[in-house]
Amino acid sequence: TLEEFKTADKVVVVAYFDKDDKKSNTSFSEVAEGLRDDFLFGAINDADVAKEEGVKQPSIILYKSFDEGKNTFEEKFSKDNLEKWIKTSAIPLVGEVGPDTYAGYMAVCLISMSLPKF
Asked: Residue 33: helix, strand or coil by DSSP?
């Protein structure tokens, strides 16, 4: 089910597109292919499911198991904007910075370069 899929990983990106919206489908597929090693992606073209979720098509929602629980993509639809948004939204706003998380925070510039060095 969609509910199970949304919680299948810490970060899950779901696109809600009309099946005839080739441009959005193609762009989303390119981003999903490029980031598939890092995130779980899915797409839904059923308008009734989107309506049940309170989502207007076309839309992309990033579901996550931290912070506010989900983010909605609201920028101009492009491959670059979408990739940047996913990478930024997938990083917790508050979290421990350590060997496992440092690279992720640095990749989206959420750590100030003026932090004291240890």
From this structure: helix
- The answer to whether the CB of 77 falls within 8 A of the CB of 24 is yes
**Mind listing the pLDDT tens digit for each residue in 62-93?**
999 988 999 999 988 888 999 989 998 998 87
Q: How far apart are the first and last CA of the chain?
A: 47
Contacts by 91-98, CB closer than 8 A, 24 or more apart: 92/66, 92/67, 93/67, 94/67, 95/66
Check: CB of residue 97 under 8 Å from CB of residue 45: no
Query: Tokens 């390119």 map to which residue?
Result: 30
* Residues facing 43 on adjacent strands: 15
Question: What residues form DSSP beta bridges with 64?
Answer: 11
